[in-house]
Amino acid sequence: MIRELSKPYVSRHGTPTLTRVETDIFIKTYFTYCLKCTFCNDACCAHGVDVARDEVRQLDQHVEALEQYTGVRREDWFIETYEEDDDFPGRGNTRTSTRRRGCVFLNPAGRSCMIHAFCLQNGMDYHALKPMICCLFPVTFGNGLLAPSDEVDDQTLICLNQGPSLYAGVRDELRYYFGQEFISELEALEAACLAERKLANG
């Protein structure tokens, strides 16, 4: 079910703007603690990820250090074809390339995103370089709607149905991008949604 928000909530980056919420984010669950997972082999990173034009620019400010850290040349990071999309900072996005078992930034010798690890090793907030789509997964956005990612809806996400709700798993990320007022409204929507669900189920 889709619920309208009381007002538009604009990302700290100026886009996207959210006006609606799919209430399945409060109901569907997944194995939230990614690096404690022992069964998925980072399957959610298998196809690469959409990266906003502005996020590419941020990564390009650290080219030499990232090339050295990841062992991947800059020309191999992205598919380099951009799509115009007002939902993404910079009004467009490309996609990371893939190799071996997934995204070019997936650690080939272990677990986790090498962008995230690079930021932590260098005392940076990982939000400075890691794509928003990655940070919010398995929740996503489009045309003003906050909703489960496609992998949830088509049930290809291996870790479904074992853990906290999608919303609970990314609450702090949503707070970072959209602010506490947004979280307060979502908390109220979640409570109402769960109460309605309990009543309907007797």
Protein described:
With 202 residues, this protein is an alpha+beta fold. Helix content is 33%, strand content 22%. The chain is built from seven helices and eleven strands. The strands form four sheets. Strands 1-2-10-9 form a four-stranded mixed beta sheet. A three-stranded antiparallel beta sheet has the order 4-6-5. It has a two-stranded antiparallel ribbon with strand order 3-11.
Question: Top keywords for this entry?
Answer:
single chain; 202 residues; alpha+beta; four-stranded mixed sheet; three-stranded antiparallel sheet; 7 helices; 33% helix; globular
Strand order of the largest sheet: 1-2-10-9
Sketch the topology as an H/E string, one letter per element.
EEEEHHEEEEHHEEHEHH
H/I helix tally: 7
Number of strand segments? 11
Structural class category: alpha+beta
Main β-sheet: number of strands, strand sense, barrel status? 4 strands, mixed
Distance between the termini: 19 Å
Topology:
Elements: E1 2-10, E2 17-22, E3 29-30, E4 50-52, H1 53-60, H2 63-70, E5 83-84, E6 92-95, E7 98-99, E8 102-103, H3 114-121, H4 132-136, E9 139-142, E10 145-148, H5 150-153, E11 160-165, H6 166-178, H7 180-200
Helix pairs in contact: 6-7
Task: Write a compact overview of the structure shown.
Helix content is 33%, strand content 22%. It is α+β, with helices and mostly antiparallel strands and 202 residues long.
